[in-house]
Amino acid sequence: MNITTIVTQMTILLLIMIVGFVGAKKNIFNDEVNVYASNILLKIGIPGLIISSVKNGSPFTGHELFNALVIFSIFVIFTGIVSKVIVEVLRIQENKALWQFMILFTNAGFMGLPAIQAILGDQAMLYGALFLLPLNCLMYGYGESLFRKGGFSFKKFMNGPMIASIIALALCIFNIKLPYILAQTCTYIGNVTTPLSMMVIGAGLVNMDIKELLDVKVWAFTIFKMILLPLFYMFSLSLFHMDPLIENTLILIMCMPVASNSSVYAFMYGEDVTLASKAIFLTSVSCVVTIPIVFILHTL
Fold it and tell me: pLDDT of 84-94, one tens digit each?
């Protein structure tokens, strides 16, 4: 993989985040705008991006598609086991559910898919969309149950990216090529995703008090989450000699910041919201540096 490409693309994403940050400082972005923009991304932009990745028919054979889904499902289960082992080995008791959730889940949809498309291209982005299928099963099944101790929300499970991933999967299975008008519509809609998502993330960082970031635990967690854990997954994946594009896609997803749902669940279920916000902030800012570091080490 070309490290220069990764550094270049992450720098571009950082600059777009800075535009969002400055926009929030100038009150162009505010909490209300961020909510609307997030809804546009989750319900329109990201689904359009996913479907546009298969607008010319399936790039995979049925066998390749099946293998990818099996690999992704096994990997998702593996990450769940790893997160559970980590919190038990470290004997974490306070905010245990939150720590496990933050270790386990990354911002795979909101930031991951745009970053994958920018760095690895459309085919890898389709892999990322397929990865959302088992990942969403884990997040809205097991992940949410960590906080509320059981239960399942089908409404939250069947969100925009999930529905779009199922549609994309169906288009791949039946090798359906979208009509030009529909294909271009999805492409134009999907094209708003990367710049808008990065600006929303940048705007969301403006309310963080810098003094609150002087937390050794969160800094240690950021190094572990953004460098050491991806390197562990990178080593684990290398043992199986899989398709390099699938491997790089999975590694890149694991390099993403803490899932934004962390703060939502922390608020809903009485966990430490400030801790979640600090972790989201630091991992979102640091990923511009940590992703190139991980992939540089990956090429050694």
Answer: 999 999 988 88
